[in-house]
Design goal:
By secondary structure, the protein is α/β, with parallel strands linked by helices. It has two domains: 125 residues, Quinolinate phosphoribosyl transferase, N-terminal domain (Aldehyde Oxidoreductase, domain 3, Alpha-Beta Complex), CATH 3.90.1170.20; 147 residues, Aldolase class I (TIM Barrel, Alpha-Beta Barrel). It is built from eleven helices and twelve strands. It has a six-stranded parallel β-sheet with strand order 6-11-10-9-8-7. A four-stranded antiparallel β-sheet has the order 3-5-1-12, covered by helices on one side. A two-stranded antiparallel ribbon has the order 2-4. Helix 9 links the parallel strand 9 and strand 10. Helix 3 runs antiparallel to helix 4 and helix 4 packs across helix 5. The longest helix is centred in the middle third of the chain and has 31 residues. It is elongated, with a radius of gyration of 23 Å.
Length: 279
Amino acid sequence: MLPPHMITVAVNAALAEDMGRMGDLTSRHCLPVNAKATGHIVARQDGVLAGLPYALATFRALDPRLSFDLGPDDGQMLADGDRVLTISGPAQSLFAAERVALNFLGHLSGVASLTRKYVEAVAHTNARIAATRKTLPGLRTAQKYAVELGGGLAHRYGLDDAILIKDNHIAAHNGDLVDTLTRAQAQAGHLTAIEIEVDTLDQFRQIKDRHPHAILLDNFSSDDLRTAVAERPDCVVLEASGGVTLETVAAIAETGVDVISVGALTHSAPNFDFGLDVI
């Protein structure tokens, strides 16, 4: 469930950015203050709906007098032409909130829809698709939420979720990945998960029996991924990452890895097309 305060923070920041110092000059100068309007938000392509709580919060933040007729819920599949939401009330408020609300819906539905494509591409395997921390500043909670609606895993929300030892941590520790892992294990609490990134099979073999919770196989070839899967100890999660695309993800999943992390889910998702049709 989305934390309400995180929705409020994101919505308020987006409205402040759009409204500026003077608000919506166009609506205020073109429409009588008592003008009413009704608009339908309509999908203009197929995909997964995400971001409805953000859109509703946007309209409500500008004017609590606006009323809503809800359609499908977040996470449901949309077809081109489906009506997502109907908003009625003061026209100035409706139009002032329109773009921010559609931006949230368009971006988050784009993330969810792209995630669903990756998930479907590996559905014949046991691999799970995960997001990364390559998110838009200020929108991580929203984007991770959209990934989950698309069927993916959120992975870490932030640096305080778990320990992920990357190549730079190892380089800063004299290049000794075993000692870096051992140090982390000695200082972490027993409930803190530890994952370590490796770039080669040699590095994988150095740490595979030293009880990390997970090993990140960065930019491994398919042959090396299969070798790592064959040699892994029980209860160690293997995650593949690095340059994953829709064209390559199925082959990566077929090697037997448990998780495939894809930065593109959040940093490169195309916008989902919605429109507001006023009646």
